[in-house]
Design a protein that fits this description.
single chain; alpha+beta; 6-stranded mixed sheet; 5-stranded antiparallel sheet; 20 helices; about 40% helix
Length: about 475
């Protein structure tokens, strides 16, 4: 009898400990994860009708709570410039949750963050409706509007504009976009119908907390040759005077495939090339040769130093994809193709911009940042994130040398469309073949080359080579001029 009681007592204690542990985990350890889980609607339902803080760009709200005149739900989330900022703000929906900054900054916007504890206590004592904090972004509204307008309607593309010295994002635009007001409406029937229509649009994924610049993984094409160049110089086996093999085609043992240079360019005019010429004309075989010489691990290590396949840091405050870095287990043809940004190499437009910033900033890669200030309901600044270095990507000497070569790509190479009169521009183009006669066309670069104030990364998806040339380098020029003339 005593043994049965003892067993029952042990079982009861074990069950109590398990229950206590589960409650402790939910309330302490897993609380933040549960709050931010997009499947958790309770947090949204608790403050859906409250006066949520605004998301502000250039002093103007791009997401705000407006009075409805209804006693049952006094406030409605609205987006005054919906398509322009949808990829950043996301939406705040009663039935479909939250995405973008509406989700990642949800606690601050709702007034539930630790920084707003005293404000919540004050509102409680005064009997006032709870209010959230306002989030002011680093985005420049004029540059954002320009970047968005430079992507033609019906064209899939992304543009990222940043300050390479601080990591501050000045513009981050993509198309196709959508109207978050269609998802944030209090009319549940209309909301459901709108969602069903929006999910049919290619390029819009309403279920992901990411936008094109931060979340779309694309083959980088020839902009990846900057990785090869940095790896080559870091190895000590190459220098600024190195002569690189530049055959029209690179054969491989045992297979018929040959890696070609672009037949329509100037790479065919010589069998060897300097780094300057190879980058100016974006020749394939010199960089494939470098990769085969150094080996997969050296290229992968440099790609990682530039942030490919890595986290972008905590300053962004947006969901993002990290990508796959540089592929594993490559045979010779696979390594050659990967070295020119093809095969299975995938990066986001933001990561390409971060690589560019590291070169512009003497090898120091700054964390990309989107939040300028966080303000309490009485407009008091409660947080002002400072620039933060994320990693060291290369040495100042190598960064300076690559900058010199990137400058020649604009003055004497295939990125002449990005040239700005009176300003030295450093740039690199890229064309990633999609296998159906179309390409992803890239430009990435910065200006002024000797004292960078702005970097621009553009990608246009699924275009032919001529359309890509018109939509990348010339558009980068327009953005450089707009930023530098402010």
């Amino acid at each position: 009898m005593n043994q049965a009681i003892r067993h029952s007592w042990v079982a009861a204690v074990a069950m109590f400990a398990l229950l206590f542990g589960a409650i402790s985990y939910v309330q302490v350890v897993g609380a933040d994860d549960l709050k931010t889980n997009p499947l958790n609607q309770r947090a949204i339902l608790q403050n859906y009708c409250n006066d949520r803080g605004a998301i502000i760009v250039g002093g103007t709200p791009v997401a705000e709570s407006t009075e409805t005149g209804s006693e049952t739900c006094k406030f409605q989330r609205t987006y005054p410039q919906p398509e322009l900022y949808a990829g950043i703000t996301g939406y705040f929906s009663k039935n479909y949750g939250a995405t973008g900054l509406e989700q990642t900054m949800g606690a601050e916007l709702a007034g539930n963050s630790d920084q707003l504890f005293l404000d919540r206590v004050g509102q409680l004592f005064l009997g006032n409706q709870p209010k959230g904090a306002s989030v002011e972004l680093t985005i420049d509204p004029q540059i954002q509007q320009l970047a968005y307008s430079l992507i033609p309607d019906g064209q899939r593309g992304s543009i990222v504009v940043t300050n390479p010295k601080t990591g501050a994002i000045l513009a981050m635009a993509s198309k196709p976009s959508y109207n978050p007001n269609l998802v944030a409406t209090q009319d549940a029937k209309a909301e459901n119908a709108n969602i069903n229509e929006l999910v049919k649009v290619p390029g819009i994924n309403l279920n992901q907390n990411v936008s094109g610049p931060t979340g779309e993984l694309l083959a980088p094409g020839s902009v990846f040759k900057l990785v090869d160049t940095a790896a080559a110089l870091a190895s000590g086996k190459y220098n600024k005077d190195s002569v690189l093999p530049n055959p029209a085609e690179m054969p491989f043992d045992g297979i018929q495939y040959k890696l070609p240079n672009y037949a329509g360019g100037n790479c065919y005019t010589r069998d060897t090339a300097s780094f300057a010429f190879a980058l100016q004309q974006s020749c394939n075989t010199p960089f494939a040769s470098i990769a085969l010489d150094l080996g997969r691990d050296a290229i992968a290590a440099q790609a990682k130093k530039f942030g490919f396949g890595e986290d972008v840091g905590g300053q962004l405050k947006l969901g993002h994809a990290s990508g796959n870095g540089f592929p594993d287990k490559l045979d010779a043809p696979g390594l050659a193709q990967s070295a020119i940004g093809q095969k299975d190499v995938r990066v986001t437009p933001l990561q390409v911009n971060m690589m560019t910033n590291a070169i512009a900033n003497g090898g120091a890669q700054m964390a990309p940042s989107l939040i300028k200030t966080l303000r309490s309901p009485d407009l008091r600044v409660i947080d002002e994130p400072q620039p933060s270095q994320l990693r060291t990507s290369t040495t100042p000497e190598i960064a300076k040398q690559i900058t010199e070569w990137m400058t020649s790509v604009v003055t004497d190479g295939i990125a002449k469309g990005a040239a700005v009169p009176g300003v030295q521009v450093a740039g690199k183009t890229g064309t990633a073949e999609l296998g159906n006669g179309t390409n992803n066309s890239w430009f990435t670069g910065f200006a002024p080359a000797d004292n960078p104030k702005v970097s621009v990364t553009i990608v246009m998806e699924g275009v032919d080579i001529y359309a890509g040339a018109k939509l990348t380098s010339p558009n980068a020029k327009k953005i450089f001029e707009a930023v530098l003339n402010k």
